[in-house]
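Please, structure for the following, as tokens.
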Amino acid sequence: MTMNQKQEIIAQVTALLARLIETEENSIKPVISSSVENMTLEMLTIKECSESIKGLSEHTIRQLVAQGKIPYIRTGQGKRGKILISRAALLNYLGGVA
């Protein structure tokens, strides 16, 4: 599988997750800043998430993922796969900070 194919699959899965989240949250519409809505899809690793937002540790991000508070996808096989989090979803959860 080529890198382009992998990126396309990740983009499709992320779009499906976003639609699912939007459907579930239709009754409670979150407040999203316009800057978050206009972002392109950018997937970050846990380390990149903690580096992009000061004061947010890798442990905290892992806990948010484990609690289901932030949508993510796991690439690779099994528990060893890399966790990727949408930058927009992270900012939306944190209230548009950073």
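The mean pLDDT is 82. Helices lie at 3-24, 34-37, 46-52, 58-66, 87-93.
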